[in-house]
Amino acid sequence: MTDQGYAKPIRIFHSIFALCMLAQLAVGHLMDVPEVEGKHEASTSLITAAIAHESHAPVTLSASGAVEESLGFEVHEFLGLTIAGLVLIRLLMAMTSWPGAGWRELFPWLFAEGRSRLIQEFKAQASGWLSLKLAPPEEGETIARTVHGLMILASVVMGISGTRLFFGWSTTAPQTASIEAIAEIHETVVFGLQILIAVHILAVVLHQMQGHNILARIKPNK
To answer: For residues 33 and 68, what is the distance between their CA atoms, to the nearest angstrom?
Structure first.
């Protein structure tokens, strides 16, 4: 393992992936969904606003009568495809021997040794979390990488469901029951991903405040 715990390609990926995910979540909350009004349209609640909030602005129709996509929705589609490609690259990286890249690091809970380390770290550190005191990063690698792995898994589900919505979302008729169900899955997964990202960012801030200099471990230019 390197002195920073992660190989340089992983650190570069982390920076690009983080920027794309934050941008995607922001766009997802701000954009308008192009869809025909109807009693069967997919729900977009304030809490699980993964696809986006409903616009109260007048609906714009094309010459064919279809609802025109907004710029925000088009950016959302482009970022979604970009993130899907990045997730595929990360899964391929997991097949390498780079430090911090393998399946055992990304999904330690799938292996007996990883589960054992995860339980040990949890028992040793859980009490400190209540007072927002975190152990040095080298003492919590398994927990941190478990969070990374869960974010990757959530991104996979988000990408698969988003791709299905991309090809199945109707701008000329109310949504079908299957598309509504997929939209709900998409929204729920993104809501969970938002929680994971928030916890991850909070942990980074706390580590920095407590002098652990965790940012040095993930800087892409080191």
So the answer is: 10
Token pair of 193 as six digits: 């991903």
pLDDT bracket for residue 135 (50, 70, 90) = confident
Where do the structural domains in the chain lie, given as residue ranges? Answer: 8-218
Q: How far apart are CA 131 and CA 204, in angstroms?
A: 15
Check: CB of residue 41 under 8 Å from CB of residue 72.
no
Question: Per-residue confidence at 2, pLDDT binned at 50, 70, 90?
Answer: very low
- CB 184: neighbour CB atoms within 10 A? 18
CATH among 1.10.150, 1.10.287, 1.20.1090, 1.20.950 for 8-218: 1.20.950
Q: What pLDDT, on a 0 to 100 scale, did the predictor assign at position 73?
A: 80
- Across 185-199, b (16+ Cβ under 10 Å) vs e yields bbbbbbebbbeebee
Coil/strand/helix, residue 53: strand
Burial class (CB within 10 angstroms; exposed 0-12, middle 13-18, buried 19+) of 46: exposed
Task: At 104, list the tokens.
Answer: 């055992």
